[in-house]
Write a structure and sequence with these properties.
The protein is of the alpha+beta class. The chain is 32% helix and 14% strand. It contains five helices and five strands. Helix 2 crosses helix 5. The longest helix has 14 residues. It is globular, with a radius of gyration of 15 Å. It starts with a strand and ends with a helix. Bound molecules: FE2/S2 (inorganic) cluster (2 copies). One FE2/S2 (inorganic) cluster binds next to loops.
Length: 151
């Protein structure tokens, strides 16, 4: 099977996919984009979050074939090469990163939240990020980072 799509603004074509292959597998194992993480592969942790067109998805739950002709944005595509966007800067400044495994998914999910709602309440932040699990930080510094990015 062949997949033709746009990833982080660049036209990409991948050959030899098997029918049940996930978008996450294609990104990480075939295209060398390790930003989206593979933690559960069951849609439970949010570490594999990417945009499919403008919709936040768990890429482990998206079949590669569903991405045909569509636009995918991963954490690597949120800012220019060597640059950080405001969400990434805020996570760094707030110390919201420990092992970092959850961080790319949280950053894409926060980016999505702030696009839809630039001034979220704490309850709205918690609801928007409820699908992104972090085993290290206790979430307080993540909340600080999202508040700072919103400001
Ligand atoms: S790896 Fe996709 S939700 Fe956990
Ligand atoms: S920083 Fe380790 S899982 Fe979140």
């Amino acid at each position: 099977m062949r997949l033709t799509c746009t990833i982080n603004g660049e036209a990409r074509e991948v050959d030899g996919l098997w029918e049940g292959e996930s978008l996450l597998h294609v990104l990480r194992e075939r295209l060398g984009l390790p930003g989206a993480k593979n933690a559960c592969e069951q849609g439970e942790c949010g570490s594999c979050s990417v945009y499919l067109d403008d919709t936040l998805v768990c890429s482990c739950l998206v079949l590669a074939g569903q991405a045909e002709g569509r636009e995918i944005t991963t954490v690597e595509g949120l800012a220019g090469v060597g640059e950080l966007n405001k969400v990434q800067e805020a996570f760094l400044a707030a110390g919201a990163v420990q092992c970092g495994f959850c961080t790319p998914g949280l950053i894409v999910a926060t980016d999505d939240l702030l696009r839809r709602n630039p001034d979220p309440t704490d309850a709205e932040i918690r609801e928007a990020l409820a699908g992104n699990l972090c085993r290290c930080t206790g979430y307080e510094k993540i909340l600080d980072a999202v508040r700072a990015a919103a400001r």
